[in-house]
Amino acid sequence: MVATLTEDAETLNAMVLFTFPFDMSGSPTLTLPSGFTDAGMPVAFQFATPHLGEAMLVRAGHALQSATDWHRAHPALVA
């Protein structure tokens, strides 16, 4: 069974552990795909900058997407 965010507090806590400080501070972030686990689940990473650093995030995201195809990949769907 696949847990949803509302069903499993431990999963939710694990997901927000590293993003929560940026959410609370209002710091700009950019989350980008970085592949899939062996089980086919998507994996991502997050860049963060100081306030007003959005231009740097956009440049970093563009550079990454120009160098990789991760943003074009889709997970396999299961019935």
Task: Explain this structure.
With 79 residues, this protein is α+β, with helices and mostly antiparallel strands. The chain has one domain (9-72). It is 35% helix and 19% strand. The chain has three helices and two strands. The protein has helices spanning 9-16, 20-25, 54-67; strands at 29-36, 42-48. A two-stranded antiparallel sheet has the order 1-2. β1 (29-36) and β2 form a beta hairpin. The radius of gyration is 15 Å and the shape is flat. The protein starts with 8 loop residues before the first helix and ends in a 12-residue tail after the last helix.
What features would you highlight for this structure?
3 helices; about 35% helix; about 20% strand; about 80 residues; two-stranded antiparallel ribbon; alpha+beta; 2 strands; flat
Summary?
The chain is of the alpha+beta class and 79 residues long. Helix content is 35%, strand content 19%. The chain has helices spanning 9-16, 20-25, 54-67; strands spanning 29-36, 42-48.
